[in-house]
């Protein structure tokens, strides 16, 4: 009678352990996801800022170039 | 009996085990698949978002690189234009300086023109008609030049007009010119031929030589002096000049006077 009970207990224990591990993994994955999102956000903001700054610079320089070319042609 | 008991006890144990298992499993089992599913979903999201961001980051990086190259190109063009503009500005300043120098050099010319223009215009009133006809275009330009209108001709145009007029006057003054005009005598207009010896003196005569004399330039025009006795000689001189004389050219005595 002792052996089947032990088996049952052992199976229940490993299941719980597995479940706990799964929970931990899930928690870990969620944390990782949050970290990845934070990392993306941290990387994205300066890149987007740089991009829009470059676009602005180009627009200004093109305007200046057009103005000087018109002046030269006149 | 023991066997029976054992069998019974085994059965009970199995039932107990089942009951234990069945009592513990149903409570735990539904959570595991959902946890697993959630974990897999989260891992997939991590992978997908990381991968998407890597792609996006690369694209942004490429775009930044392109924009930086574009800025570099525009800067080069701007520098080229600015250099040219600087050269153009220098050239403009140089030309402005030259312009000033030329204006200064023109000052004596301008003052000479201002002196000569009214003089020539005044003198032109006493020029004989053939010379006045020749000078018409120059005189009108001189007239415009001496006016203070906004569309006054340039200094070079004024100078050309003066030089041209002086050349014409000089040419006329050093040559003989023949013209025809109507002279009024006792209220009757008679056609006479006039032969100008430059701007010094002119002789006139009608076809018959009865209305003849000489003309002298005076203020306000040429004054006519009758000298009928010189009529035949004047006609002869005119015919020599026109090469219509029937005899060989010879010296002719003509009256002479100066102012």
Describe it.
- The complex is a heterodimer of chains A (74) and B (259).
- Chain A contains one helix and no strands.
- Chain A is rod-shaped and about 90 Å long.
- Chain A is an all-alpha fold and 74 residues long.
- With 259 residues, chain B is α+β, with helices and mostly antiparallel strands.
- Chain B has two domains: 41-174, no CATH class; 176-242, no CATH class.
- Helices cover 66% and strands 15% of the residues of chain B.
- Chain B is built from five helices and five strands; from the N terminus they run ααααβββββα.
- In chain B, strands 1-2-3-4-5 form a five-stranded antiparallel sheet, covered by helices on one side.
- Chain B starts with a helix and ends in a 17-residue tail after the last helix.
- In chain B, 15% of the residues are buried.
- The chains are: A mainly alpha (74), B alpha+beta (259).
- The interface between A and B is large, with 41 and 44 residues.
The portion of residues forming beta strands of chain A comes to: under 5%
If you compute it from the alpha carbons, what radius of gyration of chain B comes out, rounded to the nearest whole angstrom? 59 Å
Overall shape of chain A: rod-shaped
Parts with pLDDT < 50 across at least 5 consecutive residues of chain A: 1-5
The biggest beta sheet of chain A is recorded as: none
Output the number of helix runs of chain B: 5
């Amino acid at each position: 009678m002792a052996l089947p009970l032990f088996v049952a207990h052992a199976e229940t224990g490993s299941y719980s352990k597995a479940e706990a591990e799964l929970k931990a993994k899930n928690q870990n994955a969620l944390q990782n996801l949050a970290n990845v999102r934070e990392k993306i956000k941290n990387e994205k903001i300066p890149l987007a800022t740089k991009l829009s700054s470059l676009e602005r610079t180009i627009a200004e320089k093109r305007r200046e170039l057009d103005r000087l070319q018109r002046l030269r042609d006149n | 009996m023991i066997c029976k008991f054992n069998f019974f006890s085994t059965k009970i144990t199995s039932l107990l085990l089942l009951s234990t298992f069945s009592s513990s499993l149903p409570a735990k089992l539904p959570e595991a698949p959902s946890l697993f599913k959630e974990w897999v979903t989260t891992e997939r999201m991590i992978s997908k978002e990381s991968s998407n961001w890597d792609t996006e980051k690369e694209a942004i990086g490429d775009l930044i690189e392109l924009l930086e190259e574009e800025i570099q190109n525009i800067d080069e063009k701007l520098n080229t234009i600015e250099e040219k503009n600087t050269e153009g500005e220098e050239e403009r300043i140089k030309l402005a300086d030259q312009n000033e120098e030329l204006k200064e050099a023109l000052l004596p010319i301008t003052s000479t023109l201002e002196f000569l223009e009214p003089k020539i215009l005044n003198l032109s009133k006493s020029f004989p008609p053939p010379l006045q006809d020749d000078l018409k275009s120059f005189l009108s330009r001189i007239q415009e030049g001496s006016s203070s209108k906004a569309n006054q001709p340039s200094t070079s145009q004024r100078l050309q007009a003066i030089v041209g007029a002086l050349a014409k006057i000089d040419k006329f003054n050093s040559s003989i010119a023949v013209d025809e005009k109507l002279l009024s005598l006792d209220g009757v207009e008679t056609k006479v031929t006039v032969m100008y010896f430059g701007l010094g003196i002119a002789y006139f005569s009608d076809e018959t030589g009865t209305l003849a004399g000489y003309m002298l330039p005076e203020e306000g025009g040429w004054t006519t002096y009758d000298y009928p006795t010189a009529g035949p000689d004047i006609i002869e001189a005119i015919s020599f000049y026109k090469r219509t004389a029937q005899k060989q050219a010879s010296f002719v005595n003509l009256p002479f006077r100066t102012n």
